[in-house]
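Lecture notes, unit on protein representations.

Consider one protein chain, 50 amino acids long.
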Amino acid sequence: MIKGNLTVTIGGKTGSIGPGAAAFVHSGVLHGVRNLGSEDAQYFVVAMGT
């Protein structure tokens, strides 16, 4: 996370992340993000594969 706050759901469990935080998702796991805040959220995705 660069700025803002997101609600992150990974494998049916939900939590929140903010600036400086990260979320890790294994391949094939159902996941999603929602911005429930009043400001834009900015984040980046790093996908690693074989």
